[in-house]
Amino acid sequence: MLGKNEPPRRQARQVQLQFVRAAAVVLAVFSVFAACAGEPDLNLSINEAVLLALDKNPAVAVERQTTPLARTFEQEQRAAFDPVLGFGAGRGKFDGTRMQSTSTNQFNVAGHTDGAGVNLGTLLPLGTRLMLDGSVSNQVINGADPFYTARVGVSAVQPLLRGAGQAANLASLRQARLDVQASEYEFRGFAEAFVAQVESACWNLELARQRLEIGRSSVKLATDQFNETVERIRIGSLAAVERAAAEAEVALRRQAVINAESAFHANRLTMLRLLQSGRRMAAWDRDVAIRLPAEPPEAPGAVLAHVEQALRMRPEMNQALLALQRNELAVVKTRNGLLPRLDFFVGLGRSGYADSFGGSIRAESGNGNDLALGFTGDWPLGRRQGTAQLERATLTREQLRLALDNLRLLVQSDVRSAYVEVQRCLAQRDATAASRRLQAEKLRAESEKFSIGKSTALLVAQAQRDLAQAQLDEVQTAADGRAALINLYRLDGSLLLRRHLDAPGAEPVAQKVE
Fold first, then answer.
1. How many percent of the chain have pLDDT more than 70?
2. Angle between helical axes of 171-235 and 457-491 (0-180°, round to 10)
3. What is the pTM for the complete model shown?
4. At 355, phi and psi to the nearest 5?
């Protein structure tokens, strides 16, 4: 209760403090109402949060389409070896003047022809092109009876230089297969980064919640100290000047709580974004509680083991190896493209003749055989296009090898730096716990001295502030340690394995010994 003779400035300050308290109560009630107004709250373990995010988050669904899309290009390359069925039918008319072979007499001719044919062709991996064809036709001249011809034949063209062999003909298909593998490692890299993001969000959310709880506890402690100071001033055991320090500490602690509440809600929104799909209006008013593991984090193994793991399993490493293999196939294709084209061809056929369609197939009026074989080819003079393509593929291969060497250095540096950070956090864990215990003892001692008039409100407020900071440092160090471990496991490519999550790209790419 305010005294009648208190200065107006002090009365105004007291009214201001009461207003701040009332505003804090309203804000707390509003926060609780907003959290409870929507769907039921989520109470999840970290593993449950990760599984829910992997199932719901649209970013994961987007990345899941990468490999199916890559497989469509593989199917497109396979189509080059699919059989092709062709067919045709038509009619033609003719008229004109012809000369007899035994004299110079001329005569007029007119007629028409009808024909139909079908063929089946395919390309073999060796480059051989096979063709099976059949046709039937009839011819009518000057109104005479139609004359039918039927033919069936088979032909083959075999490249001897350019386009010969499986290496050249299967290069594009093998490149498409490597692209499918690369997409699997791309998804694995995304999955590891996403799981790390979700786990870090879980720890950040609970860290923000603990910071808020510590802030509210410090407000209560500062308020109790302020009330005690006011009471002792009232009874005359303390000077009135002690009130300012206690009141300022209350205001400072409330300011910290406001910032902590804002940080908590920002982390809550981040967590909700990761756990929800975008198919309907998202529920942003729910609170999310994460059940953190009680046991301390495990100590990492030897740094060399993590480095070796990263060089084998890091998705970027495997993608770089696949890119190098893909370029090796490009060198094979372009080198083969420099060769001149020289193809050997052979064709066999048999024809039947008759005055009816069925008779031509049975060759009632006679038959005939045909055979053709030979060579065809060409050789571009200068070969500048092929030479440029081969040079580009060779230079790209060398560039990829250098990039792979650089990536190996970066991976080793990343893992070793992350390992150093883990060791720092583990060492800080015990130090911050000891600091928090000592600051609590310091506050207890300072409070006892204050109760007997041997200390001041300013010193007690300073001790309260130091304890609150020590508590914040302790929870921050615990969260930093978990985050450092998550980052180490992500960088060495073992995060999904350690979380027992299955994803494509679980096997490393075999590295060629050069």
1. 87
2. 170
3. 0.79
4. -95, 15
